[in-house]
Write a structure and sequence with these properties.
Length: about 230
């Protein structure tokens, strides 16, 4: 019998292949992130002092919304084609497959958002000294948001239009991530230490990494088996 890690690797390989096949689902949140932030200077004007003050919050809010846009597809295709039921009856822990799917979701959404953020920070006149905090906070924060979001996606996988409901479920849990993520960037922009905010984000990610796959696996069993 194959080892449990084979389920993780097989799911990871399959979902990566599907993600690159369905590039539209992967690109849409990134396009939203880019367009939404590009509109900010057009709406508020090119005044650097104003843009610099709001840049951390704007980038983080748009990253959060872009992540929410992609959550509905996390388990949807598996539910529609019946492969989710096969995972449910597998002798291996369902949480391994969930962890693999969340990792692919972060690779397809959170990582590109993080890589794009410094460029958009330049557009919003964010100081260069804040770029490190921006990238580090987004790496931790987007990974935690993907993990937490998997619980909402699992709870609504059987619903036709679960996108709005996912937002209602996970948004309260995203607020601390948003606060500490934006605070880290703002603090770095002022030239002060931001290690406390990163420590909180790291602790949140560690907790989500342990609990979220288990919670999402339980939610999938409830949603599919009724």
């Amino acid at each position: 019998m194959a080892e449990p890690s084979s389920l993780f690797l097989a799911t990871l390989k399959r979902d990566l292949t599907l993600a690159f096949r369905n590039r539209g689902d992967m690109v849409n949140p990134l396009v939203f992130f880019l367009i939404a932030i590009t509109m900010i200077p057009l709406a508020l004007g090119p005044e650097k002092a104003v843009l610099m003050r709001i840049a951390p919050g704007i980038i983080w809010v748009m990253a959060l919304l872009a992540t929410l846009l992609s959550l509905d597809n996390l388990f949807r295709s598996d539910f529609d084609d019946g492969s989710l039921e096969q995972l449910l009856i597998s002798p291996y822990p369902l949480s391994l497959a969930v962890a693999a799917k969340v990792f692919v979701h972060w690779l397809a959404t959170g990582l590109p958002l993080t890589l794009m953020a410094p460029l958009l920070g330049v557009m919003l006149s964010l100081p260069e000294k804040a770029f490190g905090a921006l990238v580090l906070s987004l790496v931790l924060g987007t990974a935690a948001m993907s993990l937490i979001g998997s619980i909402g996606a699992a709870l609504t996988v059987g619903l036709r239009k679960g996108g709005v409901l996912i937002s209602l479920i996970v948004m309260p849990l995203y607020i601390p991530i948003l606060i500490f993520g934006a605070s880290a960037v703002q603090t770095a922009a002022l030239g002060e230490a931001y290690t406390m905010q990163l420590a909180v984000l790291g602790a949140g990610l560690a907790i989500a990494l342990v609990l979220a796959p288990l919670a999402a696996a339980g939610a999938l069993r409830v949603s599919v088996n009724g």
